[in-house]
Write a structure and sequence with these properties.
Layout (H helix, E strand, L loop, with lengths): L8 H8 L1 H8 L4 H10 L4 E5 L2 H18 L3 E3 L3 H4 L10 E7 L5 H12 L4 E5 L5 H5 L2 E4 L12 H18 L3 H33 L4 E6 L2 H17 L2 E6 H4 L12 E6 L5 H5 L2 H6 L3 E6 L12 E3 L9 H5 L1 H13 L18
Parallel strand pairs: 1-2, 1-3, 3-4, 4-5, 6-7, 6-8, 8-9, 9-10
Helix pairs in contact: 2-8, 2-9, 3-8, 4-8, 4-10, 9-15, 10-15
Length: 353
């Protein structure tokens, strides 16, 4: 039983249980979601989400395009709520992601899509929520009750649900998918143990830093944005997550001597783009940390790098690569005398319209 009176106890427990939750997710709703795509002649996907789930949607956008070869876009929920416009087409699948399934603007986006005869899929942690019951198909992430305000296990649950759905569409044999999930869960447990000390050391080094930059590319973009959000919401750090391809278009201007910069190099594709920025970052005086693939993947890991477990495909790396940053947000919040379970001014369910 977690002692909820201890600052950060909920977030710590929820980070740690993620690998076990991945094993429990299963394939509920995934087959129906795949049939919906096939039967309705889907030729494009639009993702609708907010906050942490929006970053899971970024992952989904890359996954659908790289694995299925069809266009994937991000929705603007204000079309349905503020402007009251139905802007989707019958061949577009609308995928709504939400931990609670209760955000009014996402519920209205799904209603708008159905008025346009679009197929709709909801991925939530609550099968009885308005979003889950309002969509054609619901895929539960089965993360269990998430009590800390900072989302952790629901985020990786959304990533894995998207992965399972795409694998179903690809026709990957169930036993192969099961083995991959078991492998990434084992890797997640090992990384959690390895990353705990790293997160504590980095938190102590960051001290009172008031800004941070997180850089990724491809699948790593979702992690960069989610890592930045975790630091912002739990530690009041002005953190931002960017694609390495966009960083020179302005974000690097925030880097001065001592600015913390985190470089995500866990995936093989896109790694070079991140690494190409590192000399410039060092020249600006940035304090660099990075995640890194196992040594057998090639290249050199620095003394401040966190080496990820080997043998994990790029499309599953985001489940692992976010764990160190969840732990870092937890530890830095505690170092600063804050409670990451109850960030100032935030609530678990955000009702946007």
């Amino acid at each position: 039983m977690t002692d909820q009176t201890i600052p950060g106890a909920l977030m710590r427990a929820e980070i740690a249980e993620q690998p076990e939750r991945w094993l429990e997710l299963g394939a509920a709703g995934v087959g129906d979601a795949a049939r919906l795509v096939r039967e309705r002649g889907v030729d494009a996907v639009t993702f609708a989400a907010r906050g942490t789930s929006d970053h899971a949607a970024v992952y989904g956008q890359y996954l659908v395009q790289t694995q299925l070869g069809i266009p994937a876009h991000m929705a603007t929920p204000s079309m349905a709520t503020v402007y009251q416009r139905d802007v989707t087409s019958p061949s577009t699948l609308v995928v709504a992601l939400s931990q609670s399934g209760r955000s009014p603007d996402l519920v209205e986006t799904v209603r708008s899509a159905r008025r346009s005869a679009c197929p709709t899929l909801a991925i939530t942690n609550d099968p009885s929520s308005p979003l889950a019951t309002g969509a054609d198909v619901h895929v539960p992430i089965r993360a269990g009750a998430e009590l800390s305000v900072a989302a952790t296990k629901s985020y990786t649950g959304e990533l894995l649900a998207l992965y399972l759905w795409v694998q179903e569409l690809l026709g990957t044999p169930p036993e192969v998918v099961t083995a991959r999930v078991a492998d990434v869960a084992r890797a997640g447990r090992a990384l959690h143990e390895r990353a705990r000390g790293w997160a504590r050391r980095v938190a102590l080094e960051l001290g009172d830093a008031d800004r941070a930059l997180v850089l990724g590319r491809g699948y790593g973009l979702a992690t960069a944005r989610e890592a930045a959000l975790k630091l912002t919401e739990t530690c009041a750090v002005a953190a931002s997550g960017w694609s390495a391809a966009d960083a020179k278009h302005g974000p690097l201007a925030q880097v001065v001597a001592g600015t913390p910069v985190f470089c995500l190099r866990g995936a093989t594709v896109g790694r070079e783009s991140v690494e190409a920025l590192m000399p410039d970052l060092r020249a600006r005086g940035a304090r660099l940390w990075s995640t890194w693939a196992a040594p057998e993947a090639g290249g050199d890991a620095g003394p401040d790098d966190l080496v990820l477990p080997s043998g994990v495909a790029d499309e599953l790396v985001p489940l692992l690569e976010i764990i160190p940053f969840q732990l870092l947000a937890l530890e830095l919040s505690l170092v600063r005398g804050m409670d990451p379970d109850r960030p100032r001014g935030l609530t678990k369910v955000t009702l946007t319209s």
